[in-house]
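Lecture 7 notes: from sequence to structure.
We start with the chain below.
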Amino acid sequence: MKTIQIKLITIVTTALATAALFTGCATPGYQQADKTGAGIAQFREEVAKAKLAVDDTVKSLGEVAVTANTNPRDAFKQFTKSLANLESTSAKAKKRAADVKAEGQAYFSNWEKQLAQLKNPEIRNLAAQQKVKLQAAFDSIRTVSAPLKAQFDPWLSDLQDLQKYLSNDLTISGVAAAKGMFAKTQTEGFEVQKSMDALVAELNTVAATLTPANVKTK
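Predicted structure tokens for the same chain:
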């Protein structure tokens, strides 16, 4: 992973230097890169919050099962609250993901326009090659986030169905009958968290690639 990150940073350093050659007095391409990098960092934070929400929801669902023989009402209320928080945090993460995609498209679209203005064929060739490499690094976010979405959405739907089911039947037999679904959603919840960890790791790499160390977007 370190080797890949170093290689990507080298690519970006050269790419941004090349971009500076053809942006002239216009807004430098690296400023758009900084903006995109900052957006990726915000997306990473939203994913981290969603992971915590997943953990809270899985734990609170487990408490419903644990207290089924006594009084599961308080545990169910906490589960409902945790689920609502999960829905909210995941929606924010999805919104941030869409923003990052738009920012990335704007960055590379601007780069493409600037390429057309280059007169020196060697510099134009170099810029085109670096753009392809950098865009591939950026697109790696989608290769990790798309499977996570495919995994997360049906899992969240199952949780929502369980919440509706339990809201009508918190009896001992009602909870016991859903034991299999409890176990399934909890196991899948842990898998979702692993996928979120993988996405956060990828976002860390890409953000470091796009933005020089210790640079903050104004």
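Points to note: Confidence is low (pLDDT under 50) at residues 1-26. DSSP finds six helices and no strands in the chain.
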